[in-house]
Amino acid sequence: MGALLILGGRSDIGGELARRLCAGRPVVLAARGEHGMDELTSELLRNGAVSVHTLSFDAADVSTHRSVIEQATALAGEEITTAVVAFGILGDQERAEHDEAHAFDIALVDYAAQVSMLTVLADVMAKGHIVAFSSIAGWRARRTNYVYGSTKAGLDAFCQGLADRLHGSDLALITARPGFVIGSMTEGMKPAPLSVTPGVVAQAVVKAIESSSGTQSSSDSRPVSRTLWIPRKLQLLAWIMKLVPRPIWRHMPR
């Protein structure tokens, strides 16, 4: 079955995916500092994980990304066959409009660091699934969150290309495009239409992984890359968004 790696071990969605995918395999939870993961570690062990290890890594330090994957593999004691890239920051749009350092930090963590880590994983992993998270925010940037939205737009484009690169191999990329996710990152914010919870996102990803692995013919068991709108009806809203005239669009809320 291989090991499960969660890059962003304290993230809501990462934790939900770990709970659903941990049974019968070693798990590595990687995050900035190893604190705050004891409860999840205990829960995963109760849910059937063979072992759970924590690993500290700084997503912004891209020079360490390859060594982080090497360390995770060593901790797990076997090859990684499912890697979830769940780290990221929302940032403060108003601050980013005047503070170039903050705008850069958002771009670094939510785009450049993601590209780096996904590139390493695609190069190192021999088989299985990589999971990445785009967002409806990247479909058409809005005045109220264009810094964050621009990173998701770039990441989504990168993922589409990476999925094409992996086509026909034993490694597949699952790209999730959820709507507004109600969780710790968005605490205190008013939910948008078609909002989802971390559990809903995780369940959709798990279903895609299972179907990706199980729909192939007996002569070709290679996994298939997929891009998911979560919920599925969000795709219709996204296409409508493209048709809204710009003078109206610039006044749209977050």
Automatic annotation (TrEMBL):
A UniProt-annotated Pfam family? adh_short
Transmembrane ranges?
A: none
Q: Which NCBIfam families match?
A: PRK05599.1
Domain of life where this protein originates: Bacteria
- PANTHER family documented for this protein: DEHYDROGENASE_REDUCTASE SDR FAMILY PROTEIN 7-LIKE (PTHR43391:SF14), RETINOL DEHYDROGENASE-RELATED (PTHR43391)
Q: Which UniProt keywords apply?
A: NADP, Oxidoreductase
InterPro entries to which the protein is assigned, alphabetical: NAD(P)-bd_dom_sf, Sc_DH/Rdtase_CS, SDR_fam
Family indicated by similarity: Belongs to the short-chain dehydrogenases/reductases (SDR) family.
List the Gene Ontology MF annotations in alphabetical order. Answer: oxidoreductase activity
- What is the protein named? Short-chain alcohol dehydrogenase
Q: What is the lineage of its organism?
A: Bacteria, Bacillati, Actinomycetota, Actinomycetes, Mycobacteriales
